[in-house]
Amino acid sequence: MMALLHFSSSFCLSTTIPNLFSSLRSPTKCPHRSKSGRIPAAASSFPAPPPDSAIADFWRWLGEKGALPKPSPPVRPGLVPEGLGLVAERDILRNEVVVEVPKQLWINADVVAASEIGPVTLGLKPWVAISLFLLREKGLDAASPWRPYLDILPPETDSSIFWSEEELSEIQGTQLLNTTLGVKEYVQSEFAEVEDKVILPNNHLFPSKITAAEFLWAFGILRSRAFSGFRGDKLVLIPFADLVNHNASITSEDVCWDIKGKGLFSREQIFSLRTPVFVNAGQQIYIQYDLGKSNAELALDYGFIESNNKGREVYTMTLEISESDPFYGDKLDIVESNGLGDIAYFDIVLGRPLPPLMLPYLRLAVLGGTDAFLLESIFRNSVWGHLELPVSRSNEETICCVVLDACASALSLYQTTIEEDEKLLEKGELDARSKIAVGVRSGEKRVLHQIQEIFRSREVELETLEYYQERRLKDLGLIGQQGEIIFWESN
Q: Are residues 467 and 390 in the same domain?
């Protein structure tokens, strides 16, 4: 039975963002591509920074709220290439605390519950409730106690959820496009529901009309600014600390923040941020957002990629055991006993071997015919071990054909070649979003070519591989090490 195999983005939020929603797979039609096939120029490479007056107001607000140590804070907000960041006021040692934010300045579900909209947000997903809170406070304008913080938030980031239709056309064929459209569709559906059940029936609580675009903005803010560890019910924004930017040169996986008491006998909690490296006065404080994210995930979450990091170039292969498979029940039992399901996602990274569970899953997914005896209950405890090695020539040939066909199909969806992408990058004329588009699509294609090379090489080796029956006969002593048949004669 042929396996269902396709390529799709396995979407999950992690690390410096909360787990806002469950996995999404939403392949939809691609936006219209510009007729010229060229990448359009954007007005700027980074989101417009807030005015100096807004930064000054925010700084005063932090001082009034007790977020600035005396006599002089080690860092302060400053304009940087990324927009706004934390700049060292003096030399700062590695692991030295640079920001401490008291809990009274955190924005989480408790803050929402204690606000005027608290009673009408009960039961909502935390990110939905906090999004409504942010938008309500923005609508209050000067009357909001959170205005100094809201005024420094960017109107959008370079995350692909904020791209125009023309910009999205430049990632046609990519998993990033499918995931981006799926996310936007999800946020739109959540907005439609909360608008119908919460916003419209309680419009007296919201000083201005909340639109779908504003709701997407709030989602993007939460997605890009919340720290790891604050997911689901723990979702929280930490003003001031959330100004820290990412740098690829920071490769430490150590968490550089923690929650602690304000004093020895105080119950008040503070969020404490440390610098993972020594920083000179005048330099920006950086952290590592997440070493495990792919470039597509970085583009979706934050609006940047690491162009020269092969470890960020990832393609997700989705394998599925079809319910129409006559051996579906047996196969499902086998994969579930090995920690998998009837749908499995395998992240393939450029320059690295295939995930160890991928080949066994593939062999099982296409298993049938004369190989189906391995599905019998007598083999249930040992079958996965057999699947870790080639089962039969026909089974191994089938998985090669399935994967190569899927790669060819995926590559046919891209509008450019890797060589064309490289030329665009060499010219150096691309804006930030265009660089992301070219970087992501070229990275995906490189991984697809790598997968093709692996399985083409395997096709060539089919005649020389050792299969189950041969291994079994050797175990029984009926075949020699050179493959010769051993005859036993009685005396």
A: yes
Question: Is the residue at 94 inside a domain?
Answer: yes
Last residue of a domain, one of 238, 270, 287: 287
Kindly tell me if the per-residue pLDDT of 267 is higher than 80: no
Binding residues for substrate: 225, 242, 257, 289, 302
Residue 301 and residue 283 share a domain: no
Does 467 qualify as catalytic in the annotation? Answer: no
Same domain, 340 and 458: yes
Same domain? For 278 and 318 the reply is no
Residue 480 maps to a domain: no
Calpha distance 334→364 (Å, rounded): 9
pTM given for the model:
0.87
* CATH code assigned at 357: 3.90.1420.10
Number of domains in the chain: 2
- What is the rounded average pLDDT of the residues 217-228? 93
Contact 159, 289 (CB under 8 A): no
CATH number for position 162? 3.90.1410.10
- Say whether both 281 and 302 belong to one domain: no
Would you call 482 exposed, middle or buried from its count of C-beta atoms within 10 A (0-12, 13-18, 19+)?
exposed
Known binding-site positions for S-adenosyl-L-methionine: 82-84, 225, 245-246
Of 149, 186, 286, 289, catalytic: 289
Average per-residue pLDDT in the chain? 88
User: Same structural domain for residues 305 and 274?
Assistant: no
Most confident of 4-8, 66-70, 298-302: 298-302
Domain ranges, residue 329: 4-16+295-475
The confidence band for 473, taking pLDDT boundaries of 50, 70 and 90, is confident
| Residue 163 Cα distances to 8, 322, 461, angstroms | 20, 35, 45
With H, G, I as helix, E, B as strand and everything else as coil, classify residue 168. helix
Check whether residue 301 and residue 157 sit in a common domain: no
The mean per-residue pLDDT over the stretch 140-150 comes to 97
Phi-psi region of 33 (alpha: psi -120 to 50; beta: other; left: phi over 0): beta
Beta bridge partners of 245: 286
Q: Enumerate residues 6+ apart whose C-beta is below 8 A from 115.
A: 133, 136
Contacts made by residues 133-140, CB under 8 angstroms, sequence distance 24+: 133/107, 134/107, 134/218, 134/221, 135/206, 135/210, 135/214, 135/215, 135/218, 136/205, 136/206, 136/207, 136/210, 138/214, 139/206, 139/207, 139/208, 139/210, 140/207
Binding annotation: 82-84, 225, 242, 245-246, 257, 289, 302
Q: How far apart are CA 249 and CA 291, in angstroms?
A: 11
Same domain, 197 and 328: no
